[in-house]
Design goal:
30% of the residues lie in helices and 21% in strands. The chain is of the alpha/beta class and 240 residues long. The chain has a single domain, classed as Metallo-beta-lactamase, Chain A (4-Layer Sandwich), CATH 3.60.15. Strands 1-2-3-4-5-6-7 form a 7-stranded mixed sheet. A 6-stranded mixed sheet has the order 8-9-10-11-12-13.
């Protein structure tokens, strides 16, 4: 079931057991969009069914925040247009060549191309890992992007962050809601969940110039600016 965050913004809440992140839905008068496409066809379909049950229009665009599997492996099942920044599409291009067999997955764990946390949760989400299919986004962009959905303005800003080598935040201007992907989380690929302090503080400095009131992390409940500050203080005290 969708949770309404603000007049134009809804989410399908995250599921930690299956590593399903919050999926966003932004409703405009002209058209509506998703924020991220989920970790599988089943996850995406759960989102689309929830949108339909809420009596909302079908989304025409899925906007991807970053390349990680839990945000992108549902892209192939989306009937509309997928969109992301060029750097994300470049990484997805590499993943389209990966084999989805136990032997190939084991080898990627050995080489460090894949991390254990993601490998474990893929096998929870997928009964048959050969069902995994990775695709590039239909449209890619460089730099900032602004979308006019009709009485709703969505600003997409690529920002360097401690979680991944790509990453963009999605700001719904009229509602003052910011989708951050997983940008406040550590790097599971290079630092085993740890943080690069410089990237962390650079991200905070940049993102907090955006006048958001509600902050949506991929795997946490929506937060106020005060709650975000408390989270970052905790990270600084324990992980940096």
């Amino acid at each position: 079931m969708l949770t309404q965050i603000s007049p134009h913004v809804y989410i399908l809440p995250f599921d930690s057991q299956r590593d399903r992140p919050n999926l966003g839905y932004i409703h405009g008068e002209k058209f509506s969009i998703l924020v991220d496409a989920g970790n599988s066809r089943a996850h995406l379909n759960a989102m689309l069914e929830a949108v339909d049950e809420a009596g909302l229009p079908k989304p025409e665009i899925a906007l991807i925040t970053h390349w990680h599997w839990d945000h992108t492996f549902g892209m192939h099942a989306f009937s509309g247009t997928t969109m992301t920044q060029t750097k994300t599409n470049e990484i997805l291009s590499i993943l389209t060549k990966w084999e989805w067999k136990p032997e190939a997955m084991d080898e990627r764990l050995k080489t460090g191309e894949e991390c254990e946390f993601c490998d474990t949760h893929m096998k929870i989400e997928y009964d048959d890992i050969t069902d995994i299919k990775v695709v590039r986004a239909d449209i890619e962009f460089d730099g900032n992007l602004t979308l006019n959905l009709g009485s709703v303005t969505v600003e997409v800003t690529p920002i360097a962050n401690p979680h991944s080598d790509d990453g963009a935040v999605v700001f719904v201007q009229e509602d003052k809601v910011l989708f951050a992907g997983d940008a406040d989380t550590g790097d599971f690929y290079k630092l085993d969940g740890g943080y690069d302090a410089d990237k962390f503080y650079d991200y905070i400095t940049t993102v907090d110039k955006i006048p958001y009131a509600t902050y949506i992390h991929g795997h946490l409940a929506p937060m106020t600016r005060t709650e975000v500050s408390a989270l970052r203080k905790e990270i600084g005290e324990t992980d940096l």
